[in-house]
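Fold in tokens:
===
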Amino acid sequence: MRFEIKALQKKLGITILYVTHDQEIALAISDRLAVMDANGTLRQIGAPEDVYEHPADDFVFRFLGIANFLPVRREGDAVYIGGSAAAWVGPAPTRPGGTLTAGFRPSDVMLAREGEGLPGTVRRASFLGAQVDYLIDIAGTLIRAALPSHECLARNLLFVEGDSCRVALATVQWFEGDVVSVAAT
């Protein structure tokens, strides 16, 4: 149906206002996208690609797909994961402040058996056909990772529960404060 709506809009050259809770449909058929919260407050307006890649805040980031949030803290020039002594390894924070949250999608996670990256422990591994979905513990915070099955097979990345791994991140969105704690309340 989403393709029919988009084709009809182009054919007739009209503006269509489509209200949905289905993020995939909203991203697929929109030229401009508006994200509203439960109170009716507009959180962000823009092209679907811009809103998805550059969310205005953690609400928009969470609303547009599966979101991982990893708390970090800055002490001088050093950055650590949450309250642990584990050093942050990844894209440097782009925001000021001592307490930050790294936001990233499961598809942004790159796994390895050893080498560079954040130390993690696989808590769940689910083979889903085209992809493998992992639940990984990083310094007490659980994150999700989604890797293409063919990549896992070719690179010996079929982990099982309890395996150690290294986690690198392709893209990180930085949010001020401890988003994880705020989201839990």
Notes: The chain has six helices and eleven strands. The domain at 68-184 is CATH 2.40.50.100 (OB fold (Dihydrolipoamide Acetyltransferase, E2P)). The first strand starts at residue 33 and ends at 36.
